[in-house]
Design brief:
Helices cover about 40% and strands about 10% of the residues. It has about 90 residues and is mainly alpha-helical. The longest helix has 14 residues.
Length: about 90
Amino acid sequence: IDNDEVLNIFGSKNIDVIIGGPPCQGFSAGNRQQIKDDPRNKLFFEFIRFVKILKPKAIVIENVRQILTKDKGFAKNKIFEILKVN
């Protein structure tokens, strides 16, 4: 779904909260078949894309604890950087 379609579907609504859970398998310590550079680990960018387009008042991202530490906190750091969270 591209940005224009997101706006077409949701753009006329006031979005208060976006709640999402990008796939966690690539981050999870329970995943015994770790894949280097697992493409699922970058799907949080899609969640953030919706946030940037729709500009809700608040967001909730659910995931496993390892999203904070895997690859030196890559996902957490990118989310904070994109959303300019200090």
